[in-house]
Design a protein that fits this description.
The chain has 228 residues and is α+β, with helices and mostly antiparallel strands. The protein has a single domain (43-211), classed as Muramoyl-pentapeptide Carboxypeptidase, domain 2 (2-Layer Sandwich). It is 46% helix and 13% strand. The protein has a four-stranded antiparallel sheet. A hairpin with an 8-residue loop joins β1 (52-54) and β2 (63-65). α1 runs antiparallel to α10. It is globular and about 50 Å long. The structure holds zinc ion. Zinc ion binds at residues 90, 126, 131, 133, 184.
Length: 228
């Protein structure tokens, strides 16, 4: 383990020196919880997240990565306790599943309209295993009306406490590439979710404004583990 950490510090330093810092950043590391994926940053058809598991919660399509699954379970428990039970609607989706969904959308509403609401294969957060579409318990409807429901308001105000952000906020379609999706939450960990929530910015803008801070966090993480 120690050797691994030494190597990661060396790799970071090397990246600083040779100018390839970008690829050392966690938002460029596909297995990182803050990996950024959108229309500009796509991933391979072969990518499958390393630690997928089934979320124990009410609903359907429930695979997520380990940490995200545990966080979602806690969030659902607390929502239920608050009298606002939720259902999962769509979690991990493979490249080929996304391909089928996108093609179906294109066939029904055309490419232009499909691109506003559906991700092309290789550009969906659902392929990372860190995203979940949620609805009121017993519903599988994903519409902006969710934002006005008690459940939708609870999700908006509380998701960050569990490490999730509402990934496609209202008014930032030009930045995120997607219209408002109050039901789509993305796991980034509590620290980043809280910071992003408080900033009021979509993930793209937050990340680009905090590159140095993220690098600092990364290097501290590596060095702290070398010298516990
Ligand atoms: Zn979604």
């Amino acid at each position: 383990m120690l050797l691994e950490k030494v190597i990661s510090v060396l790799a970071l330093s090397a990246a600083l020196l040779d100018g390839s810092l970008d690829t050392a950043m966690p938002d460029k590391n596909i297995d990182s919880r803050i990996f950024l994926i959108n229309r500009q940053h796509s991933i391979s058809r072969r990518y499958v997240p390393p630690d997928l598991r089934r979320v124990i919660a009410h609903g359907i399509s429930q695979e997520m990565r380990q940490d995200a699954a545990t966080a979602l379970e806690q969030m659902f428990e607390d929502a239920k306790e608050a009298g606002l039970p939720l259902s999962t609607v769509s979690g991990y989706r493979s490249y080929s599943k996304q391909s089928t969904i996108y093609s179906r959308k294109v066939n029904s509403i055309g490419v232009k309209a499909a691109d506003r609401v559906s991700a092309r294969p290789g550009t969906s957060e659902h392929q990372l295993g860190l995203a979940m579409d949620v609805a009121k318990k017993g519903s599988s409807s994903l519409t902006t009306a969710f934002a006005k429901t008690e459940q939708g308001k609870w999700v908006y105000e509380n998701a960050h406490k569990y490490g999730f952000i509402v990934r496609y906020p209202e008014g930032y379609e030009d930045v995120t590439g997607y219209s408002y999706e109050p039901w789509h939450i993305r796991y980034v960990g509590v620290e980043y979710a809280t910071a992003i929530y408080q900033s009021g910015l979509p993930m793209e803008l937050y990340m680009s404004g905090h590159r140095l801070e993220i690098f600092d966090y990364l290097i501290h993480q590596a060095t702290n583990e070398v010298h516990p």
